[in-house]
Each structure stands twice: as structure tokens, then as C-alpha cells.
Amino acid sequence: MMLKILVRLAWFFNVHKWRYLFAILILIIASILELVPAFLIGSAIDLFQRGSLGIDEAIQLSTVLITVIVLGYALNYIWMRSLLGGAYLLERTLRSRFMRHLYLMDHHFLKKDRPGIYSHEEQTT
User: Pick from 44, 74, 45: which is nearest to 60 by CA?
Assistant: First the structure.
């Protein structure tokens, strides 16, 4: 079922492929960057156990750790905005196509199948 939907939306993904490739690339980079804080904390613990963690190394590790955390947050924001922005664009495109289709419908169809208006028999059941 999901594959059928993706096949039917292939035209949209082909038009906006760079948006989605960019989002996936940033997602991969952000995922790799999320491993760095654990590595930095492990390095700090090793330096502390050996007794070679001076104030300069602690400040340097703290600065790098804060920078990596902020950069990871920014990258996560960028890929989510890019991906969700594409979803919003798809929604808007599909809705405008549907509304254009409804506006082009023949008045006989709309008279026969009145949307939102039910007969008395349908309301009682």
C-alpha cells in the first residue's frame, strides 16, 4: 500500500529531489555528529583518570562539546524543516490540484452529487 502511494507521488519526488537529498544528507551528518559528544566525554574521563586533564584541556573539551551539541541541534532543525517543508508543499500542491479539478467539474455532476447535503433518508439511518 505504501509503495503504491510512493509510486503515485514519484512525479513530486522527481521535481523536488534535491530538497529530499539535502534533507537525507543533513540527517546522516547529524546522526554521525550525535556520536561525537560520547567520544568527547570518554576522552575527558580517560584524561582525568590518567591525571593529565588540566584546565586548558577541560576548557577546550567543554568548548568543543558545546559547539558540537549546538551544531547537532542546528542540523536536526535544518533536516526536519527541509523534510516537513516538503510535506507541506506536497499537501498544498495536492489540495490545489484537487480544488482545480472540482472547479472544472460540470455543473450536472455537482447538481446530481451535491457535496455536504444529504437526503432525509440518509440522515435518519
Answer: 44
Residue 101's Cβ-count burial label (10 Å; 0-12, 13-18, 19+) is exposed
- In the chain, what are the helix, strand and coil shares in percent, each to the nearest 5? 85, 0, 15
Contact assessment for residue 82 and residue 16, using Cβ atoms and an 8 Å cutoff: no
Contact 30, 72 (CB under 8 A): yes
The predicted model gives 14-19 an average pLDDT of 91
- The whole-model pTM stands at 0.69
Residue keyed to cell 573539551: 61
Q: Give the number of other Cβ atoms within 10 Å of residue 30's Cβ.
A: 19
